[in-house]
Design brief:
about 130 residues, alpha+beta, Ubiquitin-like (UB roll), 5-stranded mixed β-sheet, disordered N terminus
């Protein structure tokens, strides 16, 4: 089965071959942390044996850094796949989206858009495609 193609919202590698999303409980609730939905590309799903979408628990500000820290903490096999282990910088050919907004070049500590923070939309990690 090929993972190439266009998935939801026109993003490559976030195709429809998926399990139901992991339920998000307590998204946006103050004091107890928030569950943030994270959508992963096929390559990372297969590596970590995860469904298309997972929920990670965030205490404090919901930023790219806090979401990726939680993702790597809850699923250690993903450590170093999205960000360089030494520098913490996004790997080349990996992109981040909130809805249709490309967040790949946003500051890692910038608060994510409200729909992601409130659990209405996922934070999407996309394996970018390159070639000529």
């Amino acid at each position: 089965m090929s993972s190439a193609g266009t998935g939801s919202a026109g993003h490559p590698d976030v195709g429809s071959r998926s399990s139901p999303p992991v339920p998000v409980k307590g998204a946006g609730s103050a004091g107890t942390g928030s569950a943030v939905r994270v959508r992963l590309p096929a390559q990372l799903r297969e590596l970590a044996k995860l469904p298309t979408e997972v929920a990670v628990q965030i205490d404090g500000a919901i930023t790219q850094r806090s979401v990726l820290d939680a993702l790597e903490r809850e699923h250690p096999v993903l450590g170093g796949t999205v960000r360089d282990r030494a520098t913490g910088r996004r790997r080349p050919f990996v992109r981040f989206f909130a809805g249709e907004s490309d967040l790949s070049n946003a500051a890692p500590d910038e608060i994510l858009p409200a729909p992601v923070c409130e659990g209405r939309e996922p934070f999407t990690v996309v394996g970018a495609i390159a070639g000529g």
